[in-house]
Write a structure and sequence with these properties.
Number of helices: 8
Helix content: 25-40%
Largest sheet: 5 strands, parallel
Number of strands: 9
CATH topology of the largest domain: Alpha/beta knot
Radius of gyration: 22 Å
Structural class: alpha/beta
Strand content: 15-25%
Strand order of the largest sheet: 2-1-6-5-7
Number of domains: 2
Length: 227
């Protein structure tokens, strides 16, 4: 089972994502366990539950403090080994191969960054890797954490109904997935390619591969570099 612990100051944001669709079914099958922790419960300031402060040296915004994050990770880890991830614009770009590597770990802890980031001592002493889902800035790390959870859950064996579904998805084999059609075969004069109606599985496979190559070259040629 893959266990994912999330540390956030907005735990309610995750209820919809982890409670529906494939992620919900993965938890029901006990393939994945997702635990969302409110960082404020680890604050030493029990009255105000403060988890941030102004940065030394001045500057705008606030920074998530070291104390609650150190205590949260210590409590969550316990005696278990866990890889700690920090969602950050400065992190390495998140890719499908990256997601596959992360599923090799049994325990993951995701820190959702916020404000102007986290105290550098947390990053230096506790964080194993930083991940970015794109070259843009978001309000916080919750949405990136959800993206990571969704991508990883799909890769856990037994979560999806057919292993073939994973093999044919975009970014597998460094290519985008080709076009898909469903009934009716003729919709307002827009017809499904004849090859898909032929019943010739080899011809269909060849067509789909050719379409995937064509689509990738047009939209994401960078994926095919070195292939």
């Amino acid at each position: 089972m893959l266990r994912i612990d999330v540390i956030t100051i907005f735990p309610d944001m995750f209820s919809t994502v982890v409670g529906h669709s494939i992620i919900k079914r993965a938890q029901e099958k006990k393939k994945v366990a997702i635990h969302v922790h409110d960082l404020r419960t680890f604050s030493a300031d029990k009255k105000r539950r403060s988890v941030d402060d102004r940065p030394f040296g001045g500057g705008p915004g606030m920074v998530l403090s070291a104390q609650p994050l150190f205590d949260a990770i210590k409590k969550i880890k316990g005696r278990r080994k866990a890889r700690v991830i920090y969602t950050s614009p400065a992190g390495k770009p998140f890719t499908q191969p990256h997601a596959k590597r992360l599923t090799k770990h049994k325990n993951l802890i995701i820190i959702c960054g916020h404000y102007e980031g986290i105290d550098e001592r947390v990053r230096l002493k506790l964080v194993d890797e930083e991940i970015s889902i794109g070259d843009y800035v978001l309000t916080g790390g919750e949405l990136p954490a959800m993206v990571i959870i969704d991508a990883l859950t799909r890769l856990v064996p037994g979560v999806l109904g057919k292993a073939q579904s994973l093999e044919q998805e975009s970014f597998e084999s460094n290519m985008l997935e080709g076009p898909q059609y469903t009934r009716p075969a003729n919709f307002r004069g827009l017809k499904v390619p004849d090859v898909l109606l032929s019943g010739d599985h080899k011809a269909i496979e060849h067509w789909r591969k050719a379409q995937a190559i064509q689509k990738t070259k047009k939209i994401r040629p960078d994926l095919m570099e070195g292939v």
